[in-house]
TrEMBL record:
<feature type="domain" description="HTH cro/C1-type">
    <location>
        <begin position="3"/>
        <end position="45"/>
    </location>
</feature>
<dbReference type="InterPro" id="IPR001387">
    <property type="entry name" value="Cro/C1-type_HTH"/>
</dbReference>
<protein>
    <submittedName>
        <fullName>Helix-turn-helix protein</fullName>
    </submittedName>
</protein>
<dbReference type="InterPro" id="IPR010982">
    <property type="entry name" value="Lambda_DNA-bd_dom_sf"/>
</dbReference>
<dbReference type="Pfam" id="PF01381">
    <property type="entry name" value="HTH_3"/>
</dbReference>
Length: 72
């Protein structure tokens, strides 16, 4: 993690915050720098973000089921 952060010219703490979700919307230049360091295209990063968002949307559309012991 330290090597990626330093090669991306960001602090290791910033990278930790991004990974843990404490920075919900990192700046575009930060994401671009991390992607470049990791050898990822921004298209690949965007595709992964879009896939993850579709998964969350699909899961939120599922009906809520309750365990029988919780139904009163």
């Amino acid at each position: 993690m330290l090597d990626v952060a330093l090669a991306s010219h960001i602090s290791p703490e910033t990278l930790r915050k991004i990974e843990s979700g404490r920075v919900a919307t990192p700046a575009f230049p930060t994401i671009a720098a991390i992607a470049d360091t990791l050898g990822l295209s921004l298209d690949a990063v965007w595709a992964e973000i879009s896939r993850a968002e579709r998964t969350v949307e699909d899961e939120s559309a599922l009906p809520v089921t309750r365990h029988p012991s919780l139904v009163s």
